[in-house]
Each structure stands twice: as structure tokens, then as C-alpha cells.
Amino acid sequence: MPNTLIDLIGNTPLVASRVLNTNPNVTLFFKMEGHNPGGSVKDRAALNMIKSGIESGRIKTTDRLIEATSGNTGIALAMIAGVYGLDIELVMPENATIERVQTMRAYGAKVTLTPADIGIEGARDYAEAKVVNDGFILLNQFANPDNWKAHYKTTGPEIWRDTNGSVTHFVSSMGTTGTIMGTSTFLKEQNPKVQIVGVQPTDESRIPGIRKWPKKYLPKIFDAKKVDTVMEVSENDARIMARRLAKEEGIFSGMSSGGATTVALRLAEHLEKGVIVSIICDRGDRYLSSDLFN
Fold first, then answer.
1. Which end of the chain, N or C, is less packed with Cβ atoms under 10 Å?
2. Rounded Cα gap, residues 188 and 130, in angstroms
3. Is 193 among the residues known to form the active site?
4. Under 8 Å between Cβ of 47 and 6
5. Dihedral sign for Cα atoms in the order 84, 280, 174, 203
6. Which of 215, 224, 220, 256 is nearest to 239 (CA)?
7. Helix (H) or strand (E) holding 195
């Protein structure tokens, strides 16, 4: 039996689509990452980055940590840093939902909000400047291999185990790309024929948690060879699907999960047969102050 909070991270359930998937020859599973104690898939990376950093000596209990985030990673890092007694500052654009800001502060983190018009890139620049000028330690989820290794060690093996090795397609939204990099690495080692499908927003769309990065900010952990196909989704389609997930499947999640589900259903429509696993990366309650569910 788990006996600490961090023991509860991972081993999230797979739930089969009952309504949205209409192809009888395809099984669509949703991996319910909102069941992590911090409410998102980012608990996995946060734990591995902090725990591995401490074990290797890169992070000391006296260090001041800093990280730029669009939300979920920040909540996870605030929770894990609190468990380990670490001081952390989280930086994100000022248009982040109030639920995210308040949750990070509840866990004991300092939250700094940067101007919305410079986006997450501006938050990243701010955090990096604090490292140079003020001696902070940057966890750097965009370049830290312990991000993707979390999913190599946990997410991939769980999917392989819980589908009895029958998974044919894995669908994941791409932000830091840690989830898709680590899961792809593991699944391809088990069966090179497993298709890895990444989800990005269309050029005009803004979907929290999914990015099409400018070259300068492309995550250093990203390896294009580990993704077989990249499919784009519009903000409108992602919004509609998030609402449909809640209403028709009883799955309450954010817009990035709606985007991944949109792509997974496109795949399901055209496959003769298969087993698709799509990431539901968080819970919908952290978007209630936004207009997502209006």
C-alpha cells in the first residue's frame, strides 16, 4: 500500500471511450493523468527532476529553485518542492488562471507573473536571468533529461502493461515534449511498430499546454525522430472536445486534452483496427475561471 504522497504519483488508470469513439474495430483508451495527486501528468516529471537532482547532488536543500511554467508543471513542482522542503519560485504569464496561481501559493511556492504579451517565452527569459544574476537553480523542464526519463520509467511501462502490449498508437499533446519523448522511447523499445502521434496547435490557435515553439525556444529534449506523425488541432476544436469529454464521457479535463482527443478520434475513424492510448493530461477544475466551459 502507498504510504507517502509521492507513492501516489503514476499508475493512473486507462479508461475506454464509451461514446466518442464509434469505430468498433478500434479501442480508444484515455490515460487519466488528472488522478495524480497534483492533478496532472506533470507530477511525474516534477518528482523525477527534483528527486534525481537531489540524489545526484545537483540540487541542495539550501538552493533556491526557479522554473517557468504555463501552469501544470508549476503546480507539480510546488507540491514536490514542499514535500522535500525546498524553496521554489515559479514564473508564468499573468493571464494564467487564478486557480493555478492560488494552488501554487497554497503549496508554499513564490509565484511571479510576467506580462501576458511576452507569453511563456518571456517567463522563460525571466527565470534564466534570475539564474545568471541572483544564483537561482533552474530546473529547466525544456532541457532537463529527467523530464522525459520520468515517462520512460513510468508512463510508457504502464501503458504497455495495461494494454497487455497491444497498444498500436500513442497520442500526446506536445508542450515541453517530455511526455511524448519518454513514452515513445519506451514503447518503441518494446515494439518499433507502435505509432507515436504528437499534437500541436494550428498557427492561429492558443491552447494552454500545447505549443508550436519558435526555433529559439524549441525544447532541447525534443527529438523529432521519436515522433512518427505530428497533427495539428485548432483552438476551437480543442475547446469543443474538452466540453464533449466532460458531457459525454464524464471526463473533466483541460483544453490540451481536448486537442489530443480530437486527434485520437481522427485516427480512430481511419484505422481498420487498433488500440489507441491518448493522454488526458490534467483535470478541468483548474480552468473554471476561464471561459472554457461557458
1. N
2. 38
3. no
4. yes
5. negative
6. 256
7. strand 195-201
Cβ–Cβ < 8 Å for 4, 11: no
Cα-to-chain-centroid distance, residue 149: 13
Residue written as cell 532537463? 144
Could you tell me what percentage of the chain is helix, strand and coil, using 3-state DSSP and rounding each to the nearest 5?
45, 20, 35
Determine which one of 42, 130, 149, 188 is catalytic. Answer: 42
Whether 45 and 291 have beta carbons less than 8 Å apart is answered as no
The answer to whether 29 touches 275, Cβ cutoff 8 Å, is: yes
9 phi/psi in degrees, rounded to 5: -80, 130
For residue range 8-45, list pLDDT tens digits in order: 999 999 999 999 999 999 999 999 999 999 999 999 99
Other beta carbons within 10 Å of 61? 9
Q: Which residues of 152-182 are buried (b: 16+ CB within 10 A; e: fewer)?
A: bbbbbbbbbebbeeebbbbbbbbbbbbbbbb
pLDDT at 251: 98
Host H or E run for residue 26: strand 26-32
3-state secondary structure of 28: strand
What pLDDT digit, counting tens, does each position of 49-87 carry? Answer: 999 999 999 999 999 999 999 889 999 999 999 999 999
Q: Which of 40, 256, 257, 278 is catalytic?
A: 256
205 is catalytic: no
Q: Pick the closest to residue 96 from 79, 80, 81, 111 (CA basis).
A: 111
Residues in the chain: 294
- Which run of H or of E encompasses 262? helix 255-270
Residue type, 28: L
pLDDT score, position 60: 95
- The pLDDT value given to residue 1: 57
Which residues of the chain are under the pLDDT cut of 70? 1-2
